[in-house]
UniProtKB/TrEMBL annotation:
Residues 25-57, 64-77 have a biased composition (Basic and acidic residues). The lineage of its organism: Bacteria, Pseudomonadati, Pseudomonadota, Alphaproteobacteria, Hyphomicrobiales. This is Hydrogenase maturation factor HypB. Belongs to the SIMIBI class G3E GTPase family. HypB/HupM subfamily. It comes from Xanthobacter tagetidis. Transmembrane segments: none annotated. The gene is hypB.
Amino acid sequence: MCTVCGCGGDGAILSDGQSKQTLAPDHDHPHDHAHGHVHTHADGTTHSHGHGHDHVHPHGHAHTHADGTTHDHDHGHGHPHGGGHDHRHAHDHIHEGEARTLDYGAGPARAHAPGLSQARMVEIETSILAKNEALAAKNRARLAEGGVFALNLLSGPGAGKTTLLVETLKALAGRLPAAVIEGDQQTDNDARRIRETGTPAVQINTGKGCHLDAHMVGHALDKLPLPPGGVLFIENVGNLVCPADFDLGETHRVTLVSVTEGDDKPLKYPDIFESADLVLITKADLAPYVDTNPEVLAHNIARINPQAKVLRVSSRAEDGLASWLAWLEEARAARLARLAAAAEAKAGALRAAAGGAR
């Protein structure tokens, strides 16, 4: 299970249309082998708290109550635990004038997990993300070696990622080589749609997992004929939350949001927009028929991420992808220029070192 977001992302399945491979769980992060005890609060909710088996050092665990208040209890293990004990608190009602929002993202971990203190959650998340970032760096170096321009496409379900990809691949056919990694919890429906365009694609089924990670993508790269100097599209699992935390080794991150989703999505789900290099407002041709104001949507995106470029696109309208295709080719050319400059600088340093050695 992914401790960062709580998903069961281990044991993902890769499929290239001809064979399937189950990935071994990636378990180099620490696990707590724990026992628990139950706390019942005044509002009737009950939850358990896990404890490690070090009976010398004190530890803490957090209580979050129905009114959103959070506090820690430190326990030493100099006393035996029974099967359970109750901690009843008088926070079971809301006084007039008090906030009605229970904010579980206010602590240092910006999340809540029963049985884990904020400090422990931060520790675990840091460990997991550090390992993912190391694997992402390997993916990035591998892609750079082949001059591959990689895009990580993120959005909620139904924003139009796959349709955008299909139409993009049709437009690029004969002009630019491409390959695709598809991420979904189940089915290879999207990968089959991609392969129908003549583009090689690998499907990753994450099972209970809600996002791709660098470990999965690294294995998918083994199965793909990467196009030298071409483009790799990585379509992430449809989810506006968890994929934002996981670097895959991409060159750029592209977030999609459709006009059918409402213009407040960037404010509700800021992380997925905050990390984007480009935001595509999709299904722009439907704007006159829905309640979303594209201008307000673009303004809200800019409030979260002023540096991101924002484009309106439509996979169905004539020239609806023109701005997106222009950005893609310009960004790819800039990437190749940077790689060439880096290679020349490295070669120059080697020549200088060789000259000095004489």
